[in-house]
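Students often ask what a 'structure token' actually looks like in practice. Rather than answer in the abstract, let us consider citrate synthase (unknown stereospecificity), a protein of 279 residues. Its sequence is given first.
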Amino acid sequence: MSAPDAATMTHEEIGAWWATAVTRIAPGEIDLRGYPVQDVIGRLGFVEVVWLLLRGDLPEPAQARMLEAALVAGVDHGPQAPSIAAARMAATCGVGLNSAVATGVNLLGDVHGGAGQQCLALLERMGERRAAGEDTGDVARSVVAEYRERGAYVPGFGHRFHPRDPRRDPLLAMVSEGVRAGAVDPGPLESALALEEALAQRRTRPVPMNIDGATAVVYASLGFAPELARGLFVLSRSVGILAHAWEESRGRSRIKGPLPRQVLATYTGPATRPLPDGD
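Now compare that with the structural description of the same chain:
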């Protein structure tokens, strides 16, 4: 059966092209998941609206506090972070602020910015094994053994800069509080702590959770999908990217590269040589 001709389509058929349950728009009307925007403004916080748009309902106060804590924790990690550095470099090249921010955000991929999603997916797989009757500690040890055999890092654990990520403890404390109050599922926290313990075995230094692991525990406890863990991290880190891009755009430097002009990248190619004589 061929597709209908656009000239013969009804308004309902055309409107169904971008059908959405998120927002209803009409002249003089904006509803967010059914709530008139004029009622939302001033009554709901930004984090509550994030939850509303992503989940379709309003969060409980404890859920909103946990989500806000995770978003706050990931806002920035200084200009040495590639996404921040790229945004600052872009800001010195005469592009608009939106382009500078987009430059930084576009660096948040599987390696830089994706560990939270990967960790949450791992916690979900561990949860499935726990539900099937396996012991949490046994599951964690087998996961660590599998990653070590592949020579891979367990996503969400260890940090190249911090011996112990200062964002870990307050986030996990909030999850623990939520578990005690019966507000969130205890499984993700138990699995993550078991992984941390398994990683520390036969090592002189522990491998504690980093920001990606801690926020993955928060998002998993709140029932967010792994893909949204990355989306929420992008939303959070965009604040820091914006702040750094704005600060750099206020300076007088132009076309700042990754190294100061006085420092040249190490050259590893052939020594200077003449072209061979041609016939």
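One point worth highlighting: Residues 22-59 form one domain. Ask yourself how you might have guessed this from the sequence alone, and why that guess would often be unreliable.
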